[in-house]
Amino acid sequence: MAKILIIGADGQVGKHLLRHYSTGTDVKALGTCHTVPGPGLTPLDITRPDETANFIAREKPDTVFLCSALTNVERCETHPHEAEAINVAAVRNIRNAADNAGAKLAFFSSEYVFDGKAGPYDEAASVNPLSVYGRTKLEGERIVAGTKAGHLIIRTTVVYSWDPGTFNFAMQMINRLGKGEGMSVPADQYSNPTYAPDLAEAAAKLIAQNRNGVFNVVGKNRLNRYEFAMLGCEVFGFDKALVTPKTTAELSQKAARPLCAGLLTGKLERETGHKPMGAREGLQEVKSLMARAA
């Protein structure tokens, strides 16, 4: 029986990966969390090399999914040493431990490795990150690419899901627009909103098919954030007048964003047969889950 280790199974992507593998009988999945143990999760501080090495050596996984990262783009910009510790040094710790265990390493990266001047991008496009977050994710990619037992680099973006207590874009809409509060949303940042359960399914399929290298895994539709918010208003029945379109410059964000970004998924579709989910379909699933939780 194959053994899968999901580092960061308390995060949005990790929890859906763990849920995906919990339904099968041919894989044993183990998840870690950062500090507060969740049900069935083991605390692991990936910034501690010895702790990381000892844990992976003890568990002897066949595949390690690295979902943990500092993904707050603004915090990365204002706390570069923290971003370096989590998104680079810790990745090196895990790569070294995976090598010693003979495990394949699957790493979640970002479209922020691009400058957003000529998107959407395929996997072979030239990288040029604009922010600390993008630079550290690219460094992480380069570390992972040296994994001895094989590697998988999954580039994604604007990941959303029904995940109460978190701040993914869908939850921000629900929490603010649902209460009648306004939102200012950039109308010049183009990406592919990605439904987390669909991302997890595609990632698991890539591992099951023993794929290696870089794959873009994002949603079907390339939208700017304002268009995504308008679609959310249609699906959830929110007042569109509550959403104010802004330019990125008007929002005075600390970190530069790749504006004309987005990722192409032709390679994923050709090699795995996976058809990415559209934004409306993903939001409708979020709405269904929200109704069940009410």
- The general outline is globular
Tell me which oligomeric state these chains represent.
Answer: single chain
- Strand-and-helix sequence, N→C? EHEEHEHHEHEEHEEEHEEHEHHH
**Whole-number total of structural domains:** 1
What class do helices, strands and sheet pairing give? alpha/beta
Number of strand segments:
13
CATH superfamily grouping: NAD(P)-binding Rossmann-like Domain
- Write the CATH architecture name: 3-Layer(aba) Sandwich
The largest sheet is: 7 strands, parallel
Radius of gyration: 18 Å
- Low-pLDDT stretches are none
Beginning-to-end CA distance, first to last residue: 38 Å
Helix content: 40-55%
**How many helices does DSSP assign?**
11
Strand content: 15-25%
So what's the CATH class?
Answer: Alpha Beta
Mean pLDDT: 95
CATH domain topology = Rossmann fold
Placed side by side, the strands forming the largest sheet appear as 3-2-1-4-5-6-11
Describe this structure in words.
It is a single chain. The strands form four sheets. The chain has a seven-stranded parallel β-sheet with strand order 3-2-1-4-5-6-11, sandwiched between helices. It has a two-stranded parallel sheet with strand order 7-10. Helices cover 42% and strands 18% of the residues. The chain is globular and about 55 Å long. The longest helix has 22 residues, at 80-101. The model has no long low-confidence stretch (mean pLDDT 95). Strand 1 (2-7), helix 1 (12-22) and strand 2 form a beta-alpha-beta unit. It has one domain (2-224, 252-293): Rossmann fold. The chain is of the alpha/beta class.
